[in-house]
Amino acid sequence: MKLPALAAACTGLFGLATALAFFYAPTDADQGLSQRIFYFHVPLALTSYVCFGWGAWKALGYLRTRRESADLESYVAIHQGVIFGALTLLTGSIWARISWGVWWSWNEDQLVLFLVLFLFYCAYFMLRFSIEPGPARANMCAVYALFGAVLIPVSFLAIRLSKRFIHPVVFNSHGPQMTGAQFLTFCVCLAAMLGLFATLYAIELAGKRLDGSLRELKELLR
Amino acid sequence: MNNYPADVAALARKDLLLELRAKETLPSMLLFVVATLTIFHFALPRGTSDVAARGLLWSALIFTALLGLTRAFVAEREQSMFDALILAPVDRSAIWLGKAIAVLAFLVAAEVVALPAFAAFFHGLDGRTVAAVALADLGICSVGTLFGAMAVAGRARELLLPLLFLPMAIPIVVGGVGGYLWFLALYDAIFALLSWAAFEYVVAEV
Amino acid sequence: MTQSEKYTAAAYLVVFLAVLVYVVIIGSKLQRLQRELAQLVEQVRENRADG
């Protein structure tokens, strides 16, 4: 899809999503206005998973085909995933602050999982920038990205298990089932977030490819 | 020549013999784990529960393992033995398995001292914890060996390995402290398989 | 605004700002690329003039 069209679609979706979230969706009986954070927080989280999954998929593709573009695409996807992940943690923290007055809650599976993933994928960047660019680095980053994807479900299970022996905090995390209007708003917000990922991904890729071409041009003209 | 078990055994024996002569890694690990447990005694307030103390055992084990893992590939890197190993007619994954077995040996040797020390310093040990430690060792060595090879390829190798390894160690600690043996076994199965399969890509181009 | 409303607005604002920061980064990158490209075009012109 052409980049300007993609960006325009994303902008439109986002406008619609924000409007729906604030004006259309009904106010939650329990949590009031703060529940609207969910319309951003959860789509951010889901989009992060998509980012990491896409990064792992491209990594697998790189290991099979050894195309340099697959390595770049994997890297960009994971970069986006970390950004969306950081936003998930930030919005989640703010929501925890509203709901329970604390900036962090170990009881929230999603938040804890994201913390673990955040640590893991930040290490991805440490790895990437400590090795000279080349096929060796691409190989290792691809393997690491695959490990990350497998780690997601394993960590989730671990976090669920850990709650049995960590002191349980009695907080009510989620409200009742979503109504129709809420669900529609949620879906639009999710689509908007995924659209944002797609747009930013395309932009970042284009930027990096431009960089690469320019460098090549410089070499040729030397 | 293409005898996989023999290759693995030869590689593991090489590492063990090197350590026997150098006597660097294992003594450090032993000293480190006992010192760490001592520090933890001072770090814990009075009346701490059993579970908390057990948690600290796992912390001590993870960090001791990291110590051993960091040393595991440094010798190869510094003496460019990697190239020689890769040129040798062995399956790349045999390198991983041989190294993992050697690291496992070091870790178990350290635990032979650490576990009784823990039992003496804190509360006793039950069979479940020992079984959990055994299972966890497999996971730690599998993943740690793979990541150790990656870390050594980079510049800040001692800094990099803990960063790479610790997020992966979180499920191990959960399984260990909670005593979820089935979970540890599942972790081991998944990640040992993945490490075994992925290692050849990690050393493909050095 | 109540406390919770403030925090909700803050959450949305955080996301908004993050995206804007990204736009700034892309903008500066674009400028840099433009400059380098202009330099290279200059270089090609010189090469043509000499050769």
Largest sheet report of chain C: none
Question: What share of the residues of chain C lie within helices?
Answer: over 70%
Low confidence ranges of chain C: none
**Total beta strands of chain C:** 0
**Topology order of chain A in helix (H) and strand (E) letters:** HHHHHH
Overall spatial form of chain A: globular
Give the percentage of residues in beta strands of chain C. under 5%
Biggest sheet statistics of chain A: none
Helix content of chain A: over 70%
How far the N terminus sits from the C terminus of chain C, by CA atoms, comes to 71 Å
Shape of chain C: rod-shaped
- Poorly predicted regions of chain A: none
Assembly form of the protein = heterotrimer
- Integer tally of domains of chain A: 1
Task: Summarize the helix and strand pattern of chain C as letters.
Answer: H
Structural class by secondary-structure content of chain C: mainly alpha
Q: What does the radius of gyration of chain A come to?
A: 20 Å
Q: What is the rounded distance between the termini of chain A?
A: 36 Å
Could you walk me through the main structural features you see in this protein, from its secondary elements to its overall organization?
The complex is a heterotrimer of chains A (222), B (206) and C (51). Chain A has helices spanning 3-24, 38-65, 68-100, 109-130, 135-162, 180-221. With 222 residues, chain A is mostly helical. Chain A has one domain. Chain A starts with a helix and ends with a helix. The model of chain A has no long low-confidence stretch (mean pLDDT 86). Chain B has one domain (4-202). Chain B is 84% helix and 0% strand. The longest helix of chain B has 30 residues, at 92-121. Chain C contains 1 helix and no strands. The N and C termini of chain C lie far apart (71 Å). With 51 residues, chain C is mainly alpha-helical. Chain C is rod-shaped, with a radius of gyration of 22 Å. Chain C has one helix at residues 3-50. In chain C, 94% of the residues lie in helices and 0% in strands. Chain C has a domain at 23-51.
